[in-house]
Amino acid sequence: MTLWERHSSVAYGAIFIGVLGHASTEFVAILSGIGGPEISVWRFLLGGFGLVLVELALPGSRNLIAPLQAHFWRIVRLSRLGVTIAYLLFHWSLDFASVPQIATLVTTIPIFVGLANLMINRQPLSKAKIASGLCALIGIGLLIADGYVAKLTGSSDSLPGIFMALGTAASVAVYSVLIRPLAGEYGALRITALTMFIDAIGLSLIVGLFFDIWVSTDRLTSMPNEALIALLVIAFWNTTITQFLWIGGLATVPNITRGSYIFFLKPVIAAVLAIWFLDQVPTGIQVLAIVVIAASVTVEVLVPKFRPAPP
After folding, report:
1. Least C-beta-crowded within 10 Å: which of 21, 74, 147, 294?
2. Which residues of 181-205 are buried (b: 16+ CB within 10 A; e: fewer)?
3. What angle do CA 86, 88, 93 make, to 5 degrees?
4. Alpha-carbon span 192 to 79, nearest angstrom
5. Which of 233, 292, 304, 249 is CA-nearest to residue 30?
6. Along the 311 residues of the chain, how does pLDDT read in single tens digits?
7. Element (H or E) spanning 68, and its range?
8. Count H helices, E strands: the chain?
């Protein structure tokens, strides 16, 4: 029995630190000064490799070949969806929209998971999930409206970034539903490490062909020190360590549902970082959207508590 399994507070603490890593991703990406498409490649080339090393260091999950032997093309296809498409859109979106906007929209992933489960597995939505989904939909509508207002007034055009972030949420959600059987068979951390590392290659090809940016050691060593440090942080802290703590914590926490709710602190933490360090002060509509989307989780938590007790 591990320390996380013996002490639930340690597992919850690991999840919280993992959420801090998730929430600071947008902030570090902006600080790097590197364009979104390129940083997505470096993040998974380096961070995915780091996660593979973590897996090799863990006695129970060193066999990375077994899942590839049994499900190679399935893992490759899911990698395209969950890494190439999802994270290319995520990092590219930061070239257009603000950190609070993107962080808030990405937080809607669990809502999209419910919809993906409905379409793929025919798993019906509970009343709580429908209520929380409608609540989240209002928040998304507020952010889109805020983007249209900004565009009409000429202050900014964040709409491309907003729709890219929604694409990220939808892609990660579908990936999460489709990858679940493999994660159950081989372990979530092992499958995550494989998909991240494998599709770093796919990302590098797409960014090279469509954006004419080919990553290389020369490009890495020629970066300014500030950009290189930020890149290493987003690769190893925001990817390797964050994923290990988040997935490992959820795997050992006594109540996985309660543990997953900590993720909804992400937009609040991201907004605070953006205000303090990037001078990206959210508009009133953006603040309202954060509150509404965060409330969508509260709705899902509270609705079951008011169900009448069975006779």
Report:
1. 74
2. ebbeebbbbbbbbbbbbbbbbbbbe
3. 95
4. 9
5. 233
6. 455 555 567 778 888 898 889 889 988 998 888 888 999 999 999 999 999 998 888 877 678 889 999 999 999 999 999 888 999 999 999 999 888 888 888 888 877 888 888 888 888 877 777 777 788 788 888 888 888 877 777 666 788 999 999 999 999 989 988 988 998 888 888 898 899 888 888 889 999 999 998 888 888 888 889 899 999 999 999 999 998 888 877 777 776 666 677 777 788 888 888 888 788 888 888 888 888 877 776 666 555 555 554 44
7. helix 65-79
8. 17, 0
Rounding to the nearest 10 degrees, give the CA dihedral for residues 43, 48, 50, 56: 180
The CA distance from 83 to 194, in Å, is 11
pTM of the model: 0.85
Quick one: tokens of 178? 């489709």
77 backbone dihedrals φ, ψ, rounded to 5°: -60, -45
287 CB neighbour count, 10 Å cutoff: 15
Structural domain spans, the chain: 3-304
